[in-house]
Amino acid sequence: MKNYMGRRIPLATSLSSLLLASVATSAHSQDTAAGAEDQIAEVIVTGTRVPKSVDKIPGAITVIGEAELAQTQAVTLDATAVLSRTVPGYAESSQAMSNTGETLRGRIPLRLFDGVPQGSPLREGTRSGTFTDMGIVERIEVINGPSAAEGIGAAGGIINYISRSPTVEGTEVDLTARYSSQFENDGDDWKIGATLTHKQDRFDVLAAVSYVDRGMTYDGNGRAIGLNTSGSVADSEAENLFFKGGINFGNDQRLQLSISRFNIAAKGNYILVDGDRTTGVTNTSVRGRPLGSKAEFNDFDQESLTYTHNNLLGGSLTVNAYRAEQAMRYVAEDGPDRQDPSIAPLGTLIDQSEIRTEKKGLRTGWAHSDLFSVTGLELNAGVDWTEDVAEQRLALTNRVWVPPMEYTSVAPFAQLSYDIGPVTVSGGIRREDGELQVDDYVTTWFRDYRPVDGGTLSYEENLPNFGVVWRIVPGLSTFVSYSRGFTLPNVGIPLRNVQCSNDNPEGTQPDGCPNDPRQSVAGILDLQPVVVDNTEVGFNWRGSRVSFGASYYESESDLGVSLAVDPGSEDFIMLRRPVEIKGYEFSSEFKITDTLRATALYSHTEGKTRTTDTGPLIREMGVNDISPDKIGTSFTWQFTEAGDVTVGSTTYLGRDLNEGRPGEEHTSGYTLFDLGANYQFGKSTVTLGVENVTDKFYVLSWSQVPGFRNYWSGRGRVTSLTYTMKF
Asked: Residue 437: beta bridge partners?
């Protein structure tokens, strides 16, 4: 085990997010050097914005280490797969470019890459999970529940991907080659990558490049899986460039620049063929290309400049300025909401949605320990500035679907913590003060060509938090916490869905709604913010051989968000009704021998909302919002100092909701087994990974519920071989 800030922390797979925190390690790559331990100790926990001992944080935090990431990457290159396997409250992986339905404890989390947001609450396109090559990620920090520390977008928790940093003096080069196959026609994947690190005196630099070519994917019946309507990683190419350089000066100061360029794009060799739920035949893919379409893609570019001063007025100052541009193009569709008879006869028009966002930000924080010479009293304060711009167009016909939107905010915050013997008390507040500006626009033909007056909306919210940690005896601690989070409700969806009330009895001749009162952005009630109150209690016990932890949480929002499918457009619509979510999680680790280790985790989440705009909260929220119960296990055997093998399983249980009532839903469970083995010789490592060892056929849980062309099976057996050489 690694020593994390003076405390023994078990594996992330065993304690995961229900503990105060955990650091993942792997048998084949445990670090024993003091330098490695120091590196782990410098983890910046996103909930506090400063390095802080995990046993003093009143909340459930997971820190997934580099070795844990490597174990998952041995099995699959899916960017979110490691979260599904190791974080109890994280939903089933979509196995696609889209991360639709991948919630954290039933809410959409804020994803960060080195602290920079990867999505936009103005128009959440569920494409924020695939934004870089996971080979350059050193660790992932996950904070469950709403977090006021990051302000907008963090009402569902935070997932922060932290890039690698040079740790060894001198120059090192890592070369990686990977081959995966399902041994079916065009079922091969290739990856090549190189990473250079250099550290000397006050200067360090990391540069990485990678290329991934993916073929078609097949299910356990050997049948090609249908391409995802929101974007697939199958039949795609991905390129990644990353640079990070820093210089230390003046003994206590550092300046660091990072640049990231990532693109994943479809190769366009296949088209989706719909399945048939009545006969149990899932979607498939055949060779071909929709006429007139362009390749779907995710394109993420960002730059970040960070200045730190570790001895300024007795405290530590951090200033981070960033800029990020993101573009997402979706699959060509001929659905009813794409049609316009002024362009083409009804039913014949094909178009593609494209979302573009740009954000700029400045994050500042100043931390002072032993404030006013009081031992154990710490202050962390600062102010954040954000500018987020987004729009959505129908790219082939260049039509406005969601008008240009701009959200700006200034958010000061202050946080105090006080150590009183074995007890740590913490509390703070963040003030969100933002404005949303929307341009004038006209809705599409499907929404009646209705003109909408733009305008400016103000958002003001105080976001407090409070928590207590009690370290009862060595190895046993408990915590209780309360926090409030804030986000915008995927603004683009209610904007694009504005239409006439009922002034056109025939419903087939949109005329701009002349009999309706003038519509303005200020009059759209669905643009009100989502404010979430979260309470949680938990405990953690760590013994010499066995560790166990558990937590219970409740999350409430008076005006929440849940998803439903509009039968007219066959697309998602938002329901703004009260939402109550609660759940519990537990996990354990058992060190059977010095070379054999077992872990287990379980999570249960349930949510309720209203069936109508009024009435009691009796409608159980379905799989698009709340993941079924999950069980995860793993067994790791280190058979030599140079080699290890891990066998893991993930089970999603079946579930029946709202029986005999609106929103009735039935899903069947399934269990998948994975295997990963590593052997190191000299400076080279060979890794074997097998996903879905038994080649089981299954339908993804969120595809078992009828929606727009969404009847997808999951991947069958995939065998991967990775060779890594360091010199």
From this structure: 406, 456
